[in-house]
Design a protein that fits this description.
- The complex is a heterodimer of chains A (about 160) and B (about 270).
- Chain A is of the alpha+beta class and about 160 residues long.
- Chain A contains 6 helices and 5 strands.
- Chain A has 2 domains: about 80 residues, Ubiquitin-like (UB roll), CATH 3.10.20; about 80 residues, DNA polymerase, domain 1 (Orthogonal Bundle).
- Chain A has a 5-stranded mixed beta sheet, covered by helices on one side.
- The radius of gyration of chain A is 15 Å and the shape is globular.
- Chain B has 3 domains: about 45 residues, 2-Layer Sandwich (Uridine Diphospho-n-acetylenolpyruvylglucosamine Reductase, domain 2), CATH 3.30.43; about 110 residues, Uridine Diphospho-n-acetylenolpyruvylglucosamine Reductase, domain 3, CATH 3.30.465.10; about 100 residues, Enolase-like, domain 1 (2-Layer Sandwich).
- At the A-B interface, strand 4 and helix 3 of A face helix 2 and helix 6 of B.
- The complex binds flavin-adenine dinucleotide and FE2/S2 (inorganic) cluster (FES) (2 copies).
Chain lengths: ~160, ~270
C-alpha cells in the first residue's frame, strides 16, 4: 500500500491504495465519483478525462499515486451553486449528447480547450482539439455546436470559471 | 496489471541507486506507453520507479547554438515553449502532432526517446537534428542511440536526463498520421545544418527510424524539393501491415520528404 494525498474538487483526500490503482478507479471506486467514465481503458476514447493541475488528462492512464500532491477536478466539480457550468448547459441546450457516456470527458476536454484557446472557437479548431474524445452516438455535429456555444458562454460567466 | 512496488525518488541519484538495488525495475515517466503495456501484462516490473517528482529532469534551456530539454518535459510543454518555437520551430510543430491533447499533457520526451517505438516522432527529430542523449552516466549521439525497434543504447538502470539539440539553419517535419492511432504511418524530418543535411524517416522502416543518405547528399548540394527528383526509396525493409503495405510506405517516404523540404525551405 502507498499513501496518496491530493485535492479532488476542492476537498483534500488521503488514502492508502494498492499502487496499481488507476486514477479513474480511485475516483470512481474510492471516492464514488462515478461521473468520470471508463470507455476503452486503452487511452483512446477520452471518456475518463479529468483535469490534473488544470490540464486535461486521461485518468485511465495515470496511477492514483502519480497524482500525489496534485489538484484534480472531475465533472462533479465544475457546476457551482446548483447551476450547471456554462459548458454543461451548452451540451444540454444543443443536444450535444445521446447516451451521454462520452459526455463527462467531452465537457472536461471542452473546458480545457477554452482555457488554452480562448472563447472564440471555430469548427475546425474544435474538431481537431477533440481528437482524443470518441463518441459512438452523435456524429459529433451537435458536440461541436455545443462546444462553440459553451466557449462563448464561458466568457460571460467569470464567476463559474473561477469556481474551477 | 500485475502488482508492483512503487518508488517516488526526488533526485536522479536516488532513482539511479534504487534501480541499482531493486530487482526487475522500470522507470515510469508519463506512463502513456508503459501503463497500457502493463495493463496488457506485456510488462510486469516488480518495481516501478516514478520519475515524476524529480525537478532536475525538467526545464528547457537555450545556450548559444543549442536547445536542451529535460527528459520529463511533456510534449505539450515542448510544443508551447517560446524558446523551442523560436530556435527550432520544426521540433515544436512535431511535438504538437503527437497523439491528442491529453496524450501531450502526459507523455514526455525522455519516455518517447527511451521507448524508440518504430512509429514515434521524437526518434526522427533526434536523429535528423543530430541530438545528444544525456544520461546519468554518459552522453550518447543520436546516431549511436537508436538501434532498431524498441532498442536503444541505454543500459539497464540508465536514466535519460536531458536531450540537447544543436540549432539547425532550417528544419521541418512532415507526418502522414495513422488516422486512428495518430502515430506516424510515415514521418520524415529534414534538417539543414551548417555543413550537412540530415533526412530521417520514422513509421516506415521495419527496423525503426533510419536516415536516407541519397536524399541527404542530393539536398546538401541543392536544398530544394527538386533535388529529390529521381530518388526513390525501395520497398525492402519497409514495414507492411493492415494500415499500409511496403510499396505504399516507400512511396510516402518520397512524398513526405518533399513536403518537409518545401516547408523547411519556405522558412526563409
Ligand atoms: C493514444 C496515444 C497516442 C499516441 N500517439 C503518439 C504519436 O502520434 N507519436 C508518438 O511519437 N507517440 C505517441 N504516443 C506515445 C506517447 O508519446 C508516449 O507518451 C511516449 O511514447 C512515451 O512517453 P512516456 O513519458 O509516456 O513514457 P512511459 O510510458 O512512462 O515510459 C516508456 C518507456 O521509457 C522508459 N523511460 C521513460 N523515461 C525514461 C528516462 N528518463 N530514462 C530512461 N528510461 C525512461 C520507461 O521505463 C518505459 O520503458 C501515443 C500514446 C497514446 C496513448
Ligand atoms: S477510458 Fe481512458 S481513454 Fe478511454
Ligand atoms: S453520446 Fe453516446 S457516446 Fe457520445
Amino acid at each position: 500500500m502507498t499513501t496518496v494525498s491530493l485535492t479532488v474538487n476542492g476537498q483534500p483526500v488521503t488514502a492508502d491504495v494498492d499502487p496499481r490503482t488507476l486514477l479513474v478507479q480511485f475516483l470512481r471506486e474510492n471516492l464514488r465519483l462515478t461521473g468520470t467514465h471508463v470507455g476503452c481503458d486503452t487511452s483512446q476514447c477520452g471518456a475518463c478525462v479529468v483535469h490534473l493541475n488544470g490540464q486535461a488528462v486521461k485518468s485511465c492512464t495515470i496511477l492514483a499515486v502519480q497524482a500525489h500532491a496534485s489538484v484534480v477536478t472531475t465533472i462533479e466539480g465544475i457546476a457551482g451553486g446548483g447551476e450547471l457550468h456554462p459548458m454543461q448547459a451548452a451540451f444540454r441546450e444543443h443536444h450535444g449528447l445521446q447516451c451521454g457516456y462520452c459526455t463527462p470527458g467531452m465537457i472536461m476536454s471542452a473546458i480545457d480547450i477554452v482555457n488554452r484557446k480562448g472563447n472564440a472557437l471555430d469548427e475546425q479548431t474544435i474538431r481537431a482539439e477533440l481528437e482524443g474524445n470518441l463518441c459512438r452516438c452523435t456524429g459529433y455535429h451537435n458536440i461541436v455546436k455545443a462546444v462553440a456555444a459553451g466557449a462563448q458562454a464561458m466568457a460571460q460567466a467569470p464567476l463559474q470559471q473561477a469556481a474551477e | 496489471m500485475y502488482a508492483f512496488e512503487y518508488h517516488r525518488p526526488t533526485s536522479v541519484k536516488e532513482a539511479g541507486s534504487l534501480a541499482g538495488q531493486a530487482e526487475d525495475t522500470k522507470f515510469l515517466a508519463g506512463g502513456h506507453t508503459l501503463l497500457p503495456t502493463m495493463k496488457l501484462r506485456l510488462a510486469g516490473p516488480a518495481n516501478l520507479i516514478d520519475l515524476g517528482q524529480i525537478a532536475e529532469l525538467r526545464g528547457i534551456e537555450r545556450t548559444g547554438d543549442t536547445i536542451t530539454i529535460g527528459a520529463m518535459m511533456k510534449h505539450a510543454e515542448v510544443a508551447n515553449s517560446a524558446d523551442v518555437k523560436e530556435a527550432i520551430p520544426a521540433l515544436a510543430e512535431m511535438a504538437e502532432l503527437i497523439g491528442d491533447p491529453h496524450v501531450r499533457n502526459r507523455g514526455t520526451i525522455g519516455g518517447s526517446v527511451a521507448n524508440n517505438d518504430p512509429s514515434a516522432d521524437y526518434p526522427a527529430a533526434c536523429l535528423a537534428l543530430n541530438a545528444t542523449i544525456v544520461t546519468n552516466q554518459r552522453k550518447i549521439a543520436a546516431d549511436d542511440f537508436f538501434q532498431g525497434i524498441f532498442t536503444t543504447a541505454l543500459e539497464e538502470g540508465e536514466i535519460i536526463t536531458q536531450i540537447s539539440f544543436p540549432i539547425p539553419s532550417r528544419a521541418a517535419y512532415a507526418k502522414f498520421r495513422n488516422p486512428a492511432s495518430r502515430y506516424a504511418l510515415v514521418g520524415v524530418f529534414v534538417a539543414k545544418h551548417a555543413d550537412v543535411v540530415r533526412v530521417t524517416v520514422t513509421g516506415a522502416g521495419s527496423n525503426g527510424v533510419f536516415r536516407v543518405p541519397e536524399m541527404e547528399q542530393a539536398l546538401s548540394g541543392n536544398f530544394a524539393a527538386e533535388a529529390l527528383d529521381g530518388i526513390a526509396v525501395g520497398e525492402d525493409g519497409m514495414n507492411s501491415d493492415i494500415h499500409a503495405d511496403a510499396a505504399y510506405r516507400a512511396h510516402l517516404v518520397g512524398v513526405m520528404a518533399r513536403r518537409a523540404v518545401q516547408a523547411a525551405a519556405a522558412r526563409g
